[in-house]
């Protein structure tokens, strides 16, 4: 049976999906800005952290990203927060915010590069190319299902930037979870019922 196969080649976009065995229901620990963080990222975080507690919540993250040409739905915001914190606290500290912000700059470039007809949407072959860039060989049947799921109109089978990010986070994130439990690159993984639910549900209920 065809599956989602990870390429052995490294990808520069792996930082968007750090992957972790951490409990998604754990608490987020305080963090700090990594050395050399650009000042505009520091300023964006501090502006959003209205109470100065060292964290921003989902609404604050949505607002600050909207000012930086990343207008995301709240669901995509929740997926981003989960991907970078490995928790469902829906809070983000300076370190996680910096990693996410830097990765989104890369992702904007990926979206624009693969939007070859410059219509502001990613179609089937463009999405296929994107996953290949990520080191994923996603079967045609799965690509079709993804386009049906994430196309806002349900007709054009194309993804705008928000849904493109949501789709890629979900596929790559679930693939990372699979690979954490995979046996020696066999394409087979063993999950307990609890670990399966903990792996999948954060992407479903975001």
TrEMBL record:
Provide the GO MF annotations for this entry.
Answer: calcium ion binding
State the protein's name.
EF-hand domain-containing protein
| Species classification | Eukaryota, Viridiplantae, Streptophyta, Embryophyta, Tracheophyta
Keywords, comma-separated and alphabetical = Calcium
Instruction: Give the species this sequence originates from.
Output: Stephania cephalantha
A Pfam family that this protein carries is EF-hand_6
InterPro entries tied to this protein: CML48/49/50 (IPR044590), EF-hand-dom_pair (IPR011992), EF_Hand_1_Ca_BS (IPR018247), EF_hand_dom (IPR002048)
Q: Which residues form the EF-hand domain?
A: 36-71, 102-137
């Amino acid at each position: 049976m065809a599956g989602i196969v990870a390429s052995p080649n490294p990808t520069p976009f792996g930082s968007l999906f750090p992957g972790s065995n951490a409990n998604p229901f754990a608490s987020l620990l305080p963090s700090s800005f990594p050395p050399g963080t650009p000042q505009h990222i520091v300023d964006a975080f501090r502006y959003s952290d209205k109470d100065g507690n060292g964290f921003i919540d989902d609404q604050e993250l949505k607002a600050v990203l909207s000012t930086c040409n990343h207008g995301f739905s709240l669901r995509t915001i929740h997926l981003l927060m989960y991907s970078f914190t490995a928790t469902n606290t829906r809070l983000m500290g300076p370190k996680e915010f910096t990693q996410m912000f830097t990765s989104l700059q890369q992702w904007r470039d990926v979206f624009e590069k693969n939007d070859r007809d410059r219509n502001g949407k990613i179609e089937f072959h463009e999405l296929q190319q994107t996953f290949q860039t990520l080191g994923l060989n996603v079967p045609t049947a799965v690509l079709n299902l993804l386009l049906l799921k994430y196309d806002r109109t349900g007709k054009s089978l194309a993804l705008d930037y928000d849904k493109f990010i949501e789709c890629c986070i979900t596929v790559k994130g679930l693939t990372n979870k699979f690979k954490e439990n995979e046996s020696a690159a066999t394409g087979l993984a063993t999950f307990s019922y609890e670990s399966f639910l903990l792996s999948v549900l954060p992407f479903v209920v975001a």
